[in-house]
Amino acid sequence: MKREELTEKILDIKREKGWTWKYITTEIGGMSDVMIVGALLGQMKLVKPLAEKAAALFGLSEVEKRMLNEVPHRGSQMPPTDPLIYRFFEMVMVNGPAWKALIEEEFGDGIMSAIDFDFQMERVANPKGDRVQFVMSGKFLPYKYYGAEQGVPEYGFKES
């Protein structure tokens, strides 16, 4: 079985049972909803105790349970073709240079981690149409300046 086939099986069971992602993530627990859904969609891995819970919930085989615990091949086609996912791509294309400039001015020469990262989503009522609100938090990772000497800083933290 390929990982994509396991994802389809999980989605089929979700449909058949009429489960919501909220129900599934509550039943499995142990980490953020985004991480659990990402794992069930094949983009993340579940640690063994959570893979065990997911396998029990979905009635998966031992091999399928182990597959949930494997490090997946992450990512997808670029640019994305799904309109909602494309909007995230568009946000980065349009706003990315400004975000980069603001982060570098505040923190220095580095990146925001997509691994040590937290993401929260909520629905915000609005009379003109409900809004989707995201809060993203990623650890700042300064570039390391290898071979730094003679007073040159070793890392790209913001200089005083």
Structural notes for this entry:
There is one protein chain. With 160 residues, this protein is an alpha+beta fold. It has two domains: 3-68, 434 Repressor (Amino-terminal Domain); 83-142, Cyanate lyase, C-terminal domain (Cyanate Lyase, Chain: A, domain 2, 2-Layer Sandwich), CATH 3.30.1160. The protein is built from six helices and two strands, in the order H-H-H-H-H-H-E-E. The chain has helices spanning 3-17, 21-28, 33-40, 48-58, 62-68, 83-107, and strands at residues 110-124, 131-142. The protein has a two-stranded antiparallel ribbon. The radius of gyration is 20 Å and the shape is globular. The mean pLDDT is 94.
Entry summary:
It is globular, with a radius of gyration of 20 Å.
Keywords:
single chain; 160 residues; alpha+beta; 434 Repressor (Amino-terminal Domain); Cyanate Lyase, Chain: A, domain 2; 2 domains; two-stranded antiparallel ribbon
